[in-house]
Write a structure and sequence with these properties.
With 245 residues, the protein is of the alpha/beta class. 43% of the residues lie in helices and 22% in strands. It folds into 2 domains: 123 residues, Rossmann fold, CATH 3.40.50; 111 residues, Winged helix-like DNA-binding domain superfamily/Winged helix DNA-binding domain (Arc Repressor Mutant, subunit A).
Length: 245
Amino acid sequence: MAIPRILVVDDDIEVREMMTQYLQRNGAIALPAATAAQAQEHLDAGRIDLILLDVMLGDENGLEICSRLRREHDVPIIMVSALSADHQRMEGYEVGADDYIAKPFNPDLLLARIRAVLSRARRSSSLVHRRKTQTFRFAGWTYDAKRDEVMSPAQIQVVLSRRETALLQTFVANPLIPLTREEIAAALDITGETAQSGEALGRGIDVLVGRLRSKIEENPKYPQILKTERGVGYVFATDVEVQDP
């Protein structure tokens, strides 16, 4: 197994050096960056397996950086911040973060969260690999797993994030079956991300469903494909045709 290459983006030199040295002592290659520009240089230079990204990065907004990175890369991102309220965590998830950990933190806890996110990313990659020969069609839409492309009924390609793609995969594999938020979280393997409460985890699923709706529904306010199942969760309310090559 390849040694993980972790990009540590924090403008606090003491925190940056502490995390870098700790990760290196625990078998990772840790690459420090104080700014978004330095982080981009590392991303351009070679493989990065995970990014630790501070929310308050000097004059730069870590949430905006995360949003931009998510549009351009599928590398897992863990937000690190002294801001730990539920709504602040949700802001991180809304811009595409895979996890959110509050400062000050136990380094062993951080390492455990990093390993969990890396493990989920590897399993997600394996799932995509197993489904590369299949094409899913629903309500005029096409999800080509071989090319990892989503095409609208108008034959316009729609770009999904890694997590949005995983959510779509969960629904096309379970059409017409109402799924609870807990079942969806388990299918996406994110049940450990919001340890503070099941309610916060449920809100995270709601945010993710809303993001997917905004991309596949003609009118996200009145969804016809990904519907809310009152008292349960959500249901993919359309037949799905699965085609093997």
